[in-house]
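Re: the 107-residue chain
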Amino acid sequence: MAVDIKNLNHNQLTDLISKAQVRQNELRKEKVVKLREKVHALIKAEGYTFEDIFGGARGKAKRSTGTVPPKYRNPANPAQTWSGRGKRPHWFNDALKAGKKEKDLAV
């Protein structure tokens, strides 16, 4: 199935390229599926599970969503703190405008 690309106009050539790229991606995915099946079969044949070999966590590592300790404290109201992340609280901006420095507000 040889295609004479010299006789194709711009639109036909663009269409051929896009179809070839789609087919290339399909072939790559098929190859990955076959390889994955081989790996799983080999692991099973040796008497192990995927998790035994590669660990229980598959995919992206999860980020910790714990709380961050406060980095700044409001001198007027010690109950108000800020971790230094996200938008600055009003009391922090007001203190800076009043002449305080960030290090003066540090915990």
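The mean pLDDT is 89.
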